[in-house]
Design a protein that fits this description.
Elements (H helix, E strand, L loop, with lengths): L3 E5 L3 H9 L6 E6 L14 H4 L13 E5 L3 E5 L4 E4 L4 E3 L2 E4 L3 E3 L12 E3 L3 H13 L6 E6 L3 H12 L2 E7 L11 H12 L4 E4 L3 E7 L2 E6 L4 E4 L1 E4 L3 E3 L15 E3 L10 E3 L4 E3 L2 E2 L3 H15 L13 E5 L2 E7 L9 E7 L4 E7 L6 E7 L5 H4 L27 E3 L4 E2 H9 L6 H8 L9 H10 L16 H11 L4 H8 L8 H11 L16 H5 L2 E2 L5 E3 L10 H13 L3 E4 L5 E6 L4 H10 L12 E6 L2 H4 L7 H12 L8 E6 L13 E6 L2 E6 L11 E7 L1 H18 L6 H7 L3 H9 L7 H14 L3 H6 L2 H4 L18 E4 L2 E4 L10
Parallel strand pairs: 1-2, 1-7, 2-3, 7-19, 9-16, 10-11, 10-16, 11-12, 18-20, 33-34, 34-35
Antiparallel strand pairs: 4-5, 5-6, 8-17, 13-14, 14-15, 20-21, 22-23, 23-26, 24-25, 25-26, 27-28, 29-30, 30-32, 31-32, 35-36, 36-37, 38-39
Helix pairs in contact: 1-6, 11-13, 19-22
């Protein structure tokens, strides 16, 4: 006889339960209050990027009857019947409550006024957007998020995506008080305040009042905020509004035992609405673990809830934040090892036992790359080197260390799957162990364990493409595909992500697929490419016109000076022999470009993964040591390769003699004059890890030099990985410099003619991107601070005076009138 399971709640945890029961003998009926299919609530703020709910939908489930838009209004436990809002009744043999949670709204007077919202569902975001769009403020909108925890910062990020400058108000003395400590929170505050957020800690809202079309929020510290929208994101409470007569936990939630069974043996509770032996959990990973327990119990198993790892790793407003284990050093005798690098913008704290032998926990802010290695070591003995500043974290992990906290998967389970041949890549490990299918933070460790076990890793670009970037380049080139949508439909899966979209945009641009802001590419671009300018710390942009070889006429210098003066821009001569102008708002960019373009300037591509500059010394024209015309060659090279889109930025230089005044050997490709011609060096870079370039050819004439550079650049563009500098690419190239010389100098592969033709096509098809915007009204319309008030300056941007120029206002430093 078929038994019926009723699940009340169609969220992520309910979805996981039904998925875990796939193939069982149960008839499953799900009551979903929302009319939408189950979606990824953890990624809620990303909805603002596209306003497409389909992008967040979880994989469709088979073998279950999903009643969308049907709220369960009552349960008759005596008859074992669930009644829906439509009057439908469904009898059950087992009932699982997965009702989740509700937002906590502090009892602030005025909290129910129009314009006040909670942040929990897609419908909530739609309502917030409607409020923002209806606001009458002339300029950038202002909002307040009440709550500076994980959810509050996510809500603030969503408001930023709607063009709102958010104030984040947190009662605790620091941001994210549950996850991070004072030191980490201090850095986090400093980093997020660079992103158009104003943070108020140690205070709360005492009232919210209506003032015409505006909202006035009065804070407990006396500050008044003039707002368009208010969002409450101050935490959650277990949702237990169904009156079932079940016992509740001390802090809310249906009280359940270790098998997630309530006081009624036929009723289970999982996720945020459950209180497991008195403890309620607000993260998705424990909810997933509860779903697995109940699925096992329903199938006759004996699995029990193993407890929850409350470790978290996330990216908030572009800032990496992670905490694990005893992050606040509450264990008696615990010691803390802290490295706070304010210059690099990173903070790390390890908590160890009083004898410094056992890792108890930690906090990472700004750089959480070591999280996958550190978290499984909690409770384990660690080497002393780990506790030194900059100490290695690549230590041997014990076999019983938990790699995946979402599904309690140990290193031993994963290595057994690899060594037995059951799993040979990350996808197969996910399928057979479920590691990596929760929050995903353990995926880097899965890749490392595969490598440690001798399994060669896939070079897939991301989960949506099994191909490497180089393979995708060849696919696009051969098939002449011109859109990301066509490429992912024919050669990938899903809808893409922030890894593959910019990478494909770069490929399309490299193959001369129209203007960078054309319809085929604009939705794929990073912020800088979207506005053809570099975003700065206060929300303004820099304007960098091209000055080939650093050579410029007095007339053009005067134009730059006049533009900087008229628009109030900060000016600086860079190490790449260009003049940068900082402080332009989005709506000012086209006006500035028009003045520059009319004077003969063009985009310097300082915002793109493209050629930046070709620096030069003065060469034989002026220098008594020069042996070749370095300025003339630098100008020729910069004009030839301008606008060349590549996996990473490209820099070059030409020195007129061996004295190397242009620093050519620190560039991606550098040229040094000799008595007999030119030496070409490749694969160098400055930056965090400087690398001297390697000598590729010696004493070649100008024609041969340019021919080899053409081949080198096109070969790099076709074969490098995403965001891979030429230095890293060259070091990872099979055969290294010798192989590169065989390919681009000796033509061992017979592709040099093709590489030269590709470069010739780029040179002939080049068009200035700034001019392209100015000549296209549709593209031009995108350059506005406020879509509902074109031309209105952003009132939240302010400056202060420093050495006779305007620079961004920093906290505590008086501003000057804008």
């Amino acid at each position: 006889m078929t038994r019926t399971l009723v699940v009340i709640g169609n969220g992520m945890v309910g979805h996981r339960l039904v998925d875990a029961l796939n193939g069982s003998s149960w008839r499953i009926v799900v009551f979903g209050e929302e009319a939408r299919p189950a979606y990824d609530r953890v990624a809620l703020s990303s909805y603002v990027d596209t306003w497409s709910s389909a992008d967040l939908e979880l994989a469709p489930l088979s073998g279950a009857e999903i009643r969308l838009g049907e709220k369960a209004v009552s349960v008759d436990r005596e008859r074992r019947v669930v009644v829906g809002a439509s009057g439908v009744e469904v009898a059950y043999d087992a009932l699982v409550l997965a009702t989740g949670s509700v937002p906590f709204v502090p009892p602030v007077p005025g909290r129910d006024l129009p314009g006040c919202h909670v942040y929990r569902t897609l419908d909530d975001l739609d309502d917030i957007r409607a409020t923002v769009q209806a606001a009458k403020r002339p300029g950038r909108h202002s909002g307040m998020v009440l709550g500076g925890g994980l959810l509050g910062l996510e809500a603030a990020n969503a408001l930023r995506g709607m063009g709102v400058s958010p104030h984040v108000v947190e009662l605790a003395p620091r941001l994210m008080p549950i996850q991070v400590d004072d030191g980490g929170a201090g850095l986090l505050k400093r980093l997020v305040e660079k992103l158009d957020l104003t943070v108020h800690t140690g205070t709360s809202a005492s009232s919210i009042e209506r003032d015409g079309s505006r909202l006035i929020a009065k804070l407990a510290n006396g500050v008044e905020l003039d707002l368009d929208v208010v969002v409450f994101s101050a935490g959650i409470r277990p949702r237990t509004d169904l009156d079932l007569g079940l016992e509740l936990g001390p802090r809310g939630g249906y009280l359940v035992d270790s098998a997630c069974r309530t006081s009624d043996p036929h009723v289970f509770a999982i996720g945020e609405c459950a209180s497991v032996e008195g403890v309620a959990y607000g993260l998705v990973a424990p909810g997933y673990a509860m779903a697995e327990v109940v699925a096992d119990q329903l199938n006759g198993g004996t699995k029990v809830f193993p407890g929850a790892d409350m470790s978290t790793k996330l990216k908030l407003l572009g800032v990496d934040v992670a905490s694990f284990g005893d992050a606040h050093a509450q264990t008696e005798g615990a010691l803390e090892v802290v490295v706070n690098n304010a210059v690099a913008g990173t903070y790390s704290k390890l908590v160890v036992s009083d004898d410094a032998r056992i890792l108890l926990g930690g906090v990472l802010v700004g750089d959480a790359s070591s999280y996958p290695s550190l978290r499984p070591l909690v409770g384990k003995e660690v080497p002393a080197a780990l506790l030194q500043p900059g100490g290695a974290v690549d230590v041997e992990m014990p076999a019983d260390a938990q790699v995946c906290s979402c599904h309690a998967v140990t290193k031993q389970t994963i290595t057994d799957a690899i060594q037995s041949g059951v799993a040979c890549d990350v996808a197969e490990l996910k399928a057979c162990t479920k590691a990596g299918t929760g929050c995903g933070s353990c995926v880097p460790m899965l890749k490392k364990l595969l490598t440690d076990c001798g399994v060669e890793q896939s070079k897939a670009l991301c989960e949506h493409f099994t191909h490497s970037r180089a393979e995708l380049f060849e696919i696009v080139r051969a098939t002449r595909i011109t859109t990301f949508t066509s490429l992912v439909e024919k050669h990938g899966s899903g809808r893409g992500c922030d890894i593959c979209k910019p990478a494909v945009a770069s490929i399309l641009a490299s193959l001369n697929n129209g203007h960078i802001l054309g319809e085929a590419q604009v939705s794929l671009q990073d912020t800088n490419d979207k506005f053809l300018a570099n975003l700065q710390r206060n929300g303004t942009y820099s304007v960098v016109p091209r000055i080939p070889g650093g050579e410029i006429t007095p007339e053009k210098l005067i134009v730059i000076g006049e533009v900087a003066r008229d628009f109030g821009l900060y000016t600086k001569i860079t190490g790449g022999q260009r003049i940068d102008m900082f402080g332009a708002t989005v709506d000012q960019l086209p006006e500035i470009w028009r003045r520059l373009v009319d004077a003969g300037f063009e985009s310097g591509h300082a915002y793109g993964k493209a050629l930046r500059t070709v620096k030069s010394c003065v060469g034989t024209t002026w220098c008594r040591y020069g042996v070749q015309d370095s300025v003339g060659l630098a100008i020729e090279l910069e004009l030839r390769y301008r606008g060349l889109r590549s996996p990473h930025k490209l820099k070059s230089a030409v020195s007129g003699c061996a004295r190397e005044c242009a620093e050519a050997r620190s560039k991606d490709f550098g040229v040094i004059a000799t008595e007999n011609g030119w030496n070409l060096y490749v694969g160098g870079n400055g930056g965090f890890t400087p690398r001297h370039a390697d000598l590729l050819v010696s004493d070649v004439d100008t024609e041969e030099l340019i021919r080899i550079i053409d081949r080198f650049l096109m070969f790099y563009i076709r074969t490098a990985d995403r965001l891979q500098r030429t230095s890293v690419w060259l070091e990872g190239l099979d055969g290294g410099l010798d192989h590169l010389r065989e390919v681009v100098v000796e033509d061992k592969l017979g592709i040099c003619a093709e590489l030269e033709a590709a470069m010739a096509s780029h040179v002939s098809d080049y068009a200035d991107e700034w001019r392209g915007v100015l000549e296209d009204p549709e593209k031009l319309a995108r350059f506005t601070s406020f879509v509902n008030a074109p031309g209105t300056p952003d009132p939240t941007i302010s400056f202060r005076a420093e050495r006779g120029q305007r620079v961004p206002v920093q906290l505590g430093i008086p501003e000057v009138v804008r």
